[in-house]
Amino acid sequence: MSSKKILIVLSDAHSFPLKKTSGADAGKTVEQPSGFFLMELAKPLQKILDAGYEVTFASPKGQEPAPDPNSESLLAFAGNFYERRRENELIERMKRENGFAKPRPFSTISDGELDSFAGVFIPGGHAPLKDLGADKELGRVLRHFHEKSKPTAAICHGPYAFLSTKQAGDGSFVYKGYKITCWSDAEEKVMETLMGGEIEKVESRLRDEGAEMVEGVMEKIGSITVDRELVTGANPMAANVLGDQFLKMLSAH
């Protein structure tokens, strides 16, 4: 019988660096408020819980995660007030029952304990750009799931965390040659226009490390990519199907 525990990786960051290209701060790097993208976390999380899995939240230092302000707007939910309320209530319940407000620091999860997890999930939002890509302990954690071929799901900016594998083990990027979908450079350029600044590009960074990036019209509208133990998606529209595929992979493992 496979373990019924899932590790969910979060960022401690409540902002990310934005290099301003216009306005009064042009030329300066400012901290742009961010965090986890609500529906990218809540939709797969609800499916994971409904399937009877126990979840453990973890982050670099164990600080309380913040939602990305953009992800809490009614615009993000296409005006669906009830859906937004349901997802906020889920996060509040996780704070009360599952230690969401105090995630486990990665360093406190031993290699032995990692054996007890069936899979790992990394939601998006811009926050991972700040503290997940270079985290050595996260690199160790992700290498475990990779080496054991355990289902690994990431969405939007979540795949940026994969870069951390270069900080652990033999220093190689373990997902080299994998097909991966993430928040695309094209989508990020739209955000740059809205925010008036330059943002680190997840797609380009992963491609530079040897990942085979899968981006296009289908990915923009919620299509996911599966390669070996990895399932990845580009944006909030992929959240439901990513959750379903992750569960399929868990039950098959």
TrEMBL record:
- Domain DJ-1/PfpI per the UniProt entry, residue ranges: 36-248
Q: Name one GO molecular function term.
A: glyoxalase III activity
Give the matching InterPro entries: Class_I_gatase-like, DJ-1/PfpI, Prot/Nucl_acid_deglycase
The record's listing under SUPFAM superfamilies reads: Class I glutamine amidotransferase-like
Which protein, by its recorded name, is this? D-lactate dehydratase
The catalytic activity, as recorded, is: methylglyoxal + H2O = (R)-lactate + H(+)
GO biological process terms on file: methylglyoxal catabolic process to D-lactate via S-lactoyl-glutathione
A single Gene Ontology CC annotation of this entry is: cytoplasm
Give the matching Pfam families.
DJ-1_PfpI
Enzyme Commission (EC) number: 4.2.1.130
